[in-house]
Write a structure and sequence with these properties.
Number of domains of chain B: 2
CATH topology of the largest domain in chain B: Rossmann fold
CATH architecture of the largest domain in chain A: 3-Layer(aba) Sandwich
Strand order of the largest sheet of chain B: 5-4-3-6-7-10
CATH class of the largest domain in chain A: Alpha Beta
Radius of gyration of chain A: 41 Å
Helix content of chain A: 10-25%
Largest interface: A-B, 26 and 41 residues
Oligomer: heterodimer
Shape of chain A: flat
Structural class of chain A: alpha/beta
CATH class of the largest domain in chain B: Alpha Beta
Distance between the termini of chain B: 31 Å
Radius of gyration of chain B: 21 Å
Order of helices and strands of chain B: HHEHEEHEEHHEHEHEEHEH
Number of strands of chain A: 35
Strand content of chain A: 25-35%
Number of helices of chain A: 14
Helix content of chain B: 40-55%
Number of helices of chain B: 10
Largest sheet of chain A: 8 strands, mixed
CATH superfamily of the largest domain in chain B: von Willebrand factor, type A domain
Strand order of the largest sheet of chain A: 20-19-21-22-28-27-26-24
Distance between the termini of chain A: 57 Å
Shape of chain B: elongated
Number of strands of chain B: 10
C-alpha cells in the first residue's frame, strides 16, 4: 500500500480536535444546585448508558471522519493483482520468412513447410479462438489483426512471401511484449521457423517475454552444408580499369572442404573465373584484377559460385562499380618549395587507383585558368597573389568549388588569408629554449577529415601562423591555442586551411603516418567521392541516404531492381532515407541531385544455417511463466499483474457513510426532548 | 391593570414587603369585585330577629323605621378567626430557576395572606421554621401586628434542611386556639411523612392549607446535557442525564405530587400546588375559597 499524495497525511493532526472536545472538554466541574435529589438515583440509568454509548460512538465517528478525510486527500493505493484477459488468450502464429527460409528441403522450401505447419496450427484452434498471423524477418509484419475468422487467418498464411532480410527473434519478442501489454491478454505463440542461430539478438534480454506468454517452437528444416559468397571487396569507383582489384571470399557453413568455382560477371557478361579451395567450415578468397570491360558509368557486377547446396540464393553477390576519370586537383605553388608538391602528390597517389590527379599550377597561370575544371584547388603557402587570382578563387568557391590552402611563413605578409578571409595575426615559433615544438592538443574528431588522422599523434609543429577564427570552424588546435586546421563555408563551396606548410621545414607531418590520411581525406572531403560518399554495396535491411536536410522540397528518386519507382510523391519530397528490402541493383538519385547505383545483397549471416541450441530455446521459453508451469497455462488466462489501485472511491463512500451516521447519532445525542416525549413521560 | 403586578417576577422588583402585600391584595380584591362568587368579611350575611340581650349596635335602624320591627344585621367577618402562617425557610427554598427563588415567592405569599387576614380583622400569626422554629409571631389583632408579621417574613432566611416533624411538634403547643393554619413549604419529604406530621394540627380543629411551592424546574426539569447536580440541603452530588430527568424523574415527581394531594385530601387537608412561575392571585384565590367555605 502506498499514497499518491502522502503529505496530506499531515491532516491527521486534526484528529486532536474531537479528542479535545470529547475527552478533555467533556465534563463541567461546576455542580448545578438542585433542591433535592430524592428522586434521582445512584444507579446507572439505561438511558445514560445509552447516551454514553452514543457519546463514544459519536467520538469514534468524528475521529474516523477526520482520518478518512486525511486519507482521501492522501489518495492511498494498493498493488492489486489484475487478472488478465478474463480467461481469454490470443494465439499468435509467427512464420519466419527470412532469407534462410528459401533453403530447399528436398523439393520444397522451408517457407512452404512453415506455411503448412502454420495451417496445421490454425486448424487445431477452436472456432471462437482469437488468433493473429505475423510474418517474421528483420521486422515483424502483422498479416492480420486478432480475429476469429479462420478463413482470414489461412489466407494470411498463404500470402506470406519470402524475404531477403535476415531474421530477428529479438524483434519478435519485442512485438510480443508490446502486444501483451496492450491487450492485457495471455498470448500463446507458435513460432514456425528454421530457428537460425544468427537470428538471435546480441543480448539475451531482448528475447524476454511477458509472464503470460507461452512460446511454442515449430522447427522446419534441418542443418545442411551451405557455401556462400560471403564478402566482396571492390572499389566503388574505378579510375584506371587496369588497376582495379576485386577480392571475393567464399565461406562454407557446416560444410566439408570443397573447391568452388568463382566467377566475376559484369553487366551480365562473365569476365573471369577462378577456383578456390574452401576448407571445412572455412573460407577461401579469390582476387580479380582489372576491369577492362567496365564502361563509363555504373556497372552491375556480380560474384557467383557454382551452386551445390540447398540455398542457391547466397551463391551470388551483387556489387556496383562506377567507372569514371580521376578528378583533377590544382596545386598552385610558386615553385620555391618543390618539396611540398612531392609530399602532397605522394600522399594523394598512395592508393592503387587514385581518385585524384594532381596538376601543379603557377599562380599566374591559375589566375587565368578555368578553375571549374578542378575538383579541388590547393594553395601552397602563397604570398602576394597575382592580380585576379583571389577574385577568381572566390568566384570558384562561391559556385561550389573547394580550396585547400596552406598558410605558412610565405603568407604572413598578407593581411588576410586568401579566400578564408581570416586575419593573419603573426607567426608562432616553437623556441629552442622552450617547448621546441608544438603538438596538436585539440581535434574535432567528429569531422570527416579529422576522423582518420588519430589526433595527429606524434606530429611536431615547429612553426604555425596564427589566424583569426571569427568566421571559421576550428578543426584542430595546437597546444598553445593556435588553430592548425580551419574550415569555412563560402557560398556553395568550402575552404580548408592548414596553418603550417606542406613541406617538412616547419613540421614533420609529411614524414608522419598522419600525413597520408590527412591529405587523402581532406581532398576527398573537398572534392567529393571517397569515404564521404555513401557506400554503394549494402545489405538488405540497410538504408540509403536520400537527403542531408539541406535539400528541403527537392525530389529524391529510387528505382527498385525491377525498375519501378518505389517512393510516393510525398516520400520523394520528404523521406530522408530508404530501406533496401530485396536483393538487386537500385538506382538512386538523392535530393542533392547525385546519382548512384546501389547493390543490395542478403545479409550473409543468413547463410549460416546453424540452429539455436535447445538450451537456449528452453531459456527463451522460460522467460514466460507459462512455460515453467508446463501445460497449466494453456488457455487459462489466469495470470495476473499488479497495478496500483486507488482506494479513494472506497474511502469516499466510507466517509459519506460515516458522515451520515455521525449526523444521526449527533441528532439523537444533542436533540432536546420533543413535546410529545415530554407529554408521554408526564 | 393592577393584575400584571401579581406576576412574581414583577413583584420581585418591589423592595418593601408591605408594599408587595398591599399591591397583591388590593389588585386581587379589585379583581374580585367583578366576580360574584366570592365575598369576605364585613359583607352582609343575613338578618335575624332581635332577641333580648342582643347588642343594640347591630340593630338595623333603617329597617326598624320602615317596619317598626327590630332586626339585627349579621356579617361574615364577625367571626373571630385566627390565621397562622407557617413559612418554610429550609435551604431547598433558596432554589429558583427563573430569577425568583422559591423563598422569595413564599415570602410574597405569606405576606399577602397575612395582609388579607389583617384586612379581615383576623388574628394573624407567623411561624418561620426549617429544622427548628426560627421565628414566631403570636396571632393577634393588635395594632401594629401586620408590621410585625411582615417584618418577620422579611427577616426569614433559608437555613438548615427541611425537617417537618420537629417544628410541627412545637407548633401543636403554640397553636392552642383553633383557626386556619397556612403552611407554605416545598415539602421535600415523603408524602406520608408530610401528612403524618401536619395532620395533628388538623385534629385540633384547625383548618389546614398546604401551599406546596415548587419551581417549574423541580416539576419538570429541562437539562441541556448531562450535568452534575448538588442537593441544596444535603450537599450530595450526583450526575444526572437529561434523558433521566425528562422521563423517570418526571414520573416520580408526578407520583409524588399525586400522592401528596391524595393523602392531603384523605386527611381533610387542603392542598394547593403553587408554581412559582404562576401569579400569586391563584394561591390567594384558593385561600379565600377555603376560608369562605369553612368559616
Amino acid at each position: 500500500m502506498g499514497f499518491f499524495s502522502p503529505w496530506f497525511l499531515g491532516g491527521l493532526i486534526a484528529v486532536g480536535l474531537p479528542i479535545y472536545l470529547h475527552l478533555l472538554k467533556r465534563h463541567k466541574t461546576d455542580p448545578q444546585p438542585f433542591p433535592s435529589l430524592m428522586f434521582f438515583e445512584h444507579r446507572e440509568q439505561s438511558s445514560v448508558q445509552h447516551r454514553r454509548l452514543d457519546y463514544i460512538l459519536l467520538f469514534i465517528l468524528r475521529t474516523l471522519m477526520l482520518v478518512l478525510l486525511a486519507l482521501l486527500f492522501a489518495n492511498p493505493f494498493i498493488r492489486r493483482n489484475t487478472p488478465k484477459g478474463n480467461g481469454q488468450k490470443i494465439v499468435v502464429v509467427a512464420v519466419d520468412r527470412s532469407f534462410s527460409m528459401r533453403t530447399k528441403e528436398g523439393a520444397t522450401s522451408r517457407l512452404d513447410l512453415a506455411k503448412e505447419e502454420a495451417q496445421k496450427v490454425l486448424s487445431g484452434l477452436p472456432p471462437t479462438q482469437k488468433a493473429q498471423v505475423v510474418a517474421l524477418a528483420d521486422t515483424l509484419q502483422a498479416m492480420t489483426q486478432q480475429t476469429t475468422d479462420p478463413g482470414e487467418l489461412r489466407g494470411a498464411v498463404s500470402a506470406i512471401k519470402e524475404s531477403d532480410a535476415r531474421a530477428s527473434f529479438g524483434e519478435l519478442s519485442r512485438y510480443l511484449r508490446t502486444l501483451s501489454e496492450s491487450t492485457k491478454t495471455p498470448l500463446e505463440v507458435h513460432l514456425i521457423s528454421d530457428l537460425q542461430k544468427s537470428g538471435m539478438p546480441p543480448g539475451f534480454t531482448d528475447l524476454r517475454l511477458d509472464e503470460d506468454t507461452t512460446l511454442n517452437f515449430h522447427t522446419v528444416g534441418k542443418v545442411q552444408p551451405n557455401w556462400a559468397v560471403e564478402t566482396v571487396l571492390a572499389p566503388q569507383h574505378v579510375y584506371d580499369p587496369k588497376r582495379a582489384r576485386i577480392s571475393a571470399t567464399v565461406a562454407g557453413f557446416s560444410a566439408p572442404a570443397a573447391t568452388r568455382t568463382i566467377t566475376l560477371l559484369m553487366n551480365g557478361k562473365t569476365i573471369q573465373s577462378k577456383s578456390v579451395n574452401v576448407p571445412e567450415n572455412g573460407r577461401g578468397t579469390a582476387e580479380f584484377t582489372g576491369l577492362d570491360q567496365a564502361s563509363y558509368g555504373f556497372n552491375k557486377c556480380e560474384i557467383r559460385i557454382d551452386s551445390a547446396d540447398g540455398l542457391p540464393a547466397d551463391d551470388r553477390y551483387a556489387f556496383s562499380v562506377e567507372r569514371t576519370d580521376a578528378k583533377k586537383v590544382a596545386f598552385v605553388d610558386d615553385g620555391r618549395r618543390a618539396q611540398a608538391l612531392e609530399f602532397f602528390r605522394a600522399a594523394l597517389n598512395a592508393t592503387e587507383d587514385p581518385a585524384f590527379q594532381l596538376e601543379p599550377l603557377r599562380p599566374e597561370v591559375a589566375a587565368t585558368a578555368n578553375l571549374t575544371n578542378y575538383a579541388v584547388v590547393v594553395l601552397n603557402n602563397l604570398g602576394q597573389l597575382p592580380q585576379g587570382l583571389e577574385q577568381s578563387l572566390e568566384r570558384y568557391v562561391t559556385a561550389g568549388g573547394s580550396i585547400f590552402e596552406s598558410i605558412g611563413p610565405g603568407s604572413v605578409a598578407l593581411p588576410r588569408a586568401p579566400v578564408l578571409g581570416e586575419a593573419i595575426e603573426g607567426t608562432k615559433y616553437a623556441s629552442r629554449e622552450g617547448e621546441r615544438f608544438f603538438t596538436v592538443s585539440d581535434v574535432d574528431a567528429g569531422h570527416d577529415v579529422m576522423k582518420s588522422v588519430e589526433r595527429f599523434d606524434g606530429v611536431r609543429i615547429y612553426l604555425a601562423v596564427s589566424v583569426g577564427t571569427t568566421k571559421s570552424r576550428v578543426l584542430a588546435r595546437l597546444n598553445n591555442g593556435t588553430p592548425l586546421v580551419l574550415e569555412r563555408k563560402v557560398g556553395e563551396g568550402k575552404v580548408l586551411a592548414f596553418t603550417s606548410t606542406f613541406d617538412a621545414d616547419n613540421n614533420d607531418m609529411p614524414k608522419h603516418g598522419a600525413w597520408v590520411p590527412f591529405v587523402q581525406k581532406s581532398v576527398a572531403y573537398l572534392g567529393g567521392g571517397g569515404s564521404t560518399e555513401q557506400p554503394s554495396n549494402l545489405s538488405v535491411g540497410e538504408y540509403v541516404e536520400l537527403r542531408t536536410g539541406n535539400e528541403k522540397g527537392a525530389q529524391a528518386e529510387v528505382q527498385d531492381p525491377d525498375g519501378q519507382r518505389v517512393l510516393s510523391l510525398e516520400e520523394s519530397a520528404q523521406a530522408r532515407n530508404f530501406q533496401l528490402t530485396r536483393e538487386g541493383f537500385y538506382e538512386v538519385r538523392t535530393a542533392g541531385g547525385k546519382r548512384s547505383q546501389v547493390a543490395a545483397h542478403a545479409n550473409r549471416m543468413e547463410s549460416d544455417l546453424a540452429v539455436i541450441p535447445q538450451d537456449t530455446l528452453d531459456l527463451w521459453k522460460g522467460t514466460g511463466s507459462s512455460a515453467s508451469s508446463a501445460g497449466a497455462g494453456q488457455g487459462t488466462g489466469g495470470e495476473a499483474n499488479t497495478t496500483p489501485w486507488s482506494l479513494s472511491p472506497i474511502i469516499l463512500l466510507l466517509l459519506l457513510g460515516v458522515a451520515l451516521a455521525e449526523s444521526v447519532i449527533a441528532d439523537r445525542y444533542l436533540r432536546p426532548p420533543t413535546q410529545s416525549q415530554e407529554t408521554k413521560a408526564a | 391593570m393592577l393584575q400584571r403586578f401579581l406576576d412574581p417576577a414583577v413583584l420581585a422588583g418591589i423592595s418593601g414587603l408591605d408594599l408587595v402585600a398591599k399591591t397583591v391584595v388590593d389588585g386581587f380584591i379589585s379583581g374580585l369585585h367583578r366576580s360574584p362568587d366570592f365575598g369576605f368579611s364585613q359583607e352582609f350575611a343575613e338578618y335575624r330577629s332581635y332577641s333580648p340581650g342582643d347588642d343594640l349596635r347591630h340593630v338595623d335602624w333603617n329597617v326598624f323605621a320602615r317596619s317598626e320591627k327590630m332586626f339585627l344585621k349579621r356579617y361574615r367577618g364577625e367571626t373571630n378567626c385566627q390565621v397562622s402562617v407557617l413559612l418554610d425557610a429550609s435551604r431547598s427554598m433558596k432554589y429558583g430557576s427563573r430569577g425568583l427563588e422559591k423563598m422569595e415567592y413564599a415570602r410574597f405569599l405569606a405576606a399577602s395572606v397575612c395582609y388579607l387576614a389583617h384586612l379581615q380583622r383576623d388574628a394573624a400569626g407567623l411561624v418561620v421554621f426549617d429544622s427548628e422554629v426560627r421565628h414566631f409571631v403570636q396571632p393577634s389583632t393588635r395594632q401594629g401586628q401586620i408590621m410585625r408579621l411582615l417584618h418577620g417574613i422579611d427577616k426569614a432566611e433559608t437555613g438548615a434542611q427541611t425537617v417537618l416533624e420537629k417544628p410541627f411538634a412545637h407548633l401543636v403547643d403554640y397553636l392552642r386556639r383553633r383557626g386556619l393554619v397556612v403552611a407554605i413549604s416545598d415539602f421535600w419529604e415523603e408524602p406520608e411523612s408530610v401528612i403524618r406530621t401536619v395532620s395533628p394540627l388538623r385534629s385540633r380543629g384547625n383548618e389546614l392549607i398546604l401551599f406546596h411551592v415548587l419551581d417549574p424546574q423541580e416539576i419538570q426539569p429541562k437539562l441541556k446535557g448531562s450535568m452534575l447536580m448538588e442537593d441544596l440541603e444535603s450537599g450530595v452530588k450526583m450526575e444526572v442525564s437529561p434523558d433521566y430527568a425528562t422521563h423517570e424523574y418526571k414520573n416520580k415527581m408526578s407520583a409524588h405530587l399525586e400522592e401528596l394531594k391524595s393523602r392531603a385530601a384523605g386527611a381533610d387537608i387542603d392542598y394547593f400546588l403553587v408554581d412559582t412561575s404562576r401569579p400569586l392571585d391563584e394561591a390567594l384565590r384558593q385561600y379565600l375559597a377555603i376560608r369562605a367555605g369553612r368559616l
